[in-house]
UniProtKB/TrEMBL annotation:
Organism domain of life: Eukaryota
Keyword tags: Oxidoreductase
Gene: ERG26
Lineage, top ranks: Eukaryota, Fungi, Dikarya, Ascomycota, Pezizomycotina
Protein name: Erg26, C-3 sterol dehydrogenase
EC numbers, comma separated: 1.1.1.170
Length: 430
């Protein structure tokens, strides 16, 4: 945009309540709504996670996110975050509330105080959490949120929630075994999912959200679901970028030369800021639809509809899985060299190693770094189409795949340095 062009008018979403607002995705949603206070200088004591570009050895100068993503009118957009504990990832300008999303009484207390126009649910346990926790939070917690937000089952909280956007997962259409190539929302949900209970609970939660869209039982609240693919970025503490960086930080260099399979498989990842953008664009579209309905205007055309719909969001740029890995290793200072330096293990042989590792883990009680499922994910194609959200909501990824991964690695390097310093300090004080 040239300096002569007028800046876009800041958007307004009214009062927004971000569920899981102190988590990975929720933090970035809050940050965008507040026009990126994370990029402003803050004392470390107030900023446990820095979202801005690091000044470390492997960093390059990123242009500010606040100049690239949409801005929000701070007079008319009020930002609240709800989490089980709000002791980390706090940003100035947001009001924080502690509550358990499976407890209707606690939720009702917060809703009476906040009176949100929009609810964006980003709460979810780790994919490795016990089955009982996944069921309780992802399915039962989402259902309770819908019932409280709707203002019917548990009584009025003094307002009306117009839009409810749920963070689902692209994995809801994957059996964790087959290739996915340019998969879209027409693919069926995998229920039950024998290999990934996390994905099954995300699918069941999504069904809960979409089936009540516009229904009287939730006060006519409009609902949608967003399905991110392979989220990476600053603050990732359990996803693919954290896993690769953590491996590279502790593994001997020779291990990083190993590749499972032929390396030709494409994989989708999505920068977390782009995921937040997708969630906010869907919320905006739901508000427009709600206003249209309340004014008695004609129905939205089916091919333009957002309410009651699910949307896949990606970086729209699938990459070769092992090229992603080697990019991360290189950015951490672990140079592999050319492809002639890579040791490619055939998938079948890698599966045997994975099976033996599982047996050893079962006997010893120690979880290995490799199993048959990690081998499968390292060798299959898994990428999606995000054309639907592009057409209906105007989504375009703002941060590209390479920059997203660079930001992930830089953040991990800084986080790892601080953790090491903290550990050293604790030892000295003992």
């Amino acid at each position: 945009m040239s300096s002569s062009e007028p800046l876009p008018t800041p958007k307004s979403l009214g009062t927004v309540l971000v569920i899981g607002g102190c988590g990975f995705v929720g933090l970035h949603v809050v940050d965008q709504l507040l026009n990126f206070p994370s990029e402003k200088a803050q004392p470390k004591s107030q900023s446990p996670i820095s979202l801005g570009p690091n000044k470390g050895r492997y960093a390059f100068n990123f242009s500010a996110l606040s100049t690239r993503y949409p801005s929000y009118d701070q007079q008319t957009t009020k930002v609240h975050a709800l989490d089980l504990k709000c002791t980390r990832n706090r940003l100035p300008g947001c009001t924080y509330h502690e509550a358990d999303i499976t407890d209707a009484e606690q939720l009702l207390r917060v809703f009476k105080e906040v009176k949100p126009d929009v609810v964006i649910n980003t709460a979810s346990p780790s994919w490795e959490a016990p089955r009982k926790i996944l069921q309780k939070v992802n399915v039962e917690g989402t259902r309770t949120l819908l019932e409280v937000a709707g203002g019917v089952k548990y009584g009025s909280w003094g307002g009306k929630c117009k839009a409810f956007v749920h963070t689902s997962s692209s994995s809801v259409i994957h059996d964790a075994q087959s290739n996915l190539r340019n998969a879209d929302e027409r693919w069926p949900l995998v229920i039950p999912n024998e290999r990934e209970y996390y994905s099954e609970t995300k699918a069941r939660a999504e069904l809960e959200v979409l089936k009540v869209n516009g229904k009287d039982e939730v006060g006519g609240m409009l609902t949608s679901a967003v399905r991110p693919a392979g989220i990476v970025g600053e603050g990732d503490m359990g996803g693919i970028s954290y896993g690769l960086c953590k491996t590279a930080s502790v593994a001997p260099l020779w291990q990083l030369h190993i590749q499972l399979g032929d390396g030709d498989n494409l994989f989708d990842t999505t920068y977390v800021g782009n995921v937040a953008l997708g969630l906010l664009l869907v919320a905006e579209a739901l508000l427009i639809t709600h206003k249209r309905k309340s004014e008695g205007k004609g129905e939205i055309l089916e091919h333009e509809r957002v309410d009651g719909e699910a949307f896949i969001v990606t970086n729209d740029a699938p990459c070769y899985f092992w090229e992603i890995s080697r990019f991360a290793y290189s950015r951490m200072g672990k140079e592999i060299g050319g492809v002639d330096k890579v040791w490619a293990l055939p998938e079948g042989f890698a599966n045997v190693i994975g099976g033996l590792s599982e047996i050893f883990g079962a006997v010893s009680g120690r979880k290995g770094k490799i199993n048959r499922q990690t081998v499968k994910y390292s060798c299959i194609d898994r990428y999606y189409s995000c054309e639907k959200i592009k057409r209906r909501c105007g989504y375009r990824p703002v941060v590209g795949a390479e920059e997203g991964w660079a930001r992930s690695v830089d953040w991990f390097l800084e986080w790892d340095r601080q953790e090491r310093e903290r550990g050293t300090g604790e030892k000295k004080s003992q």
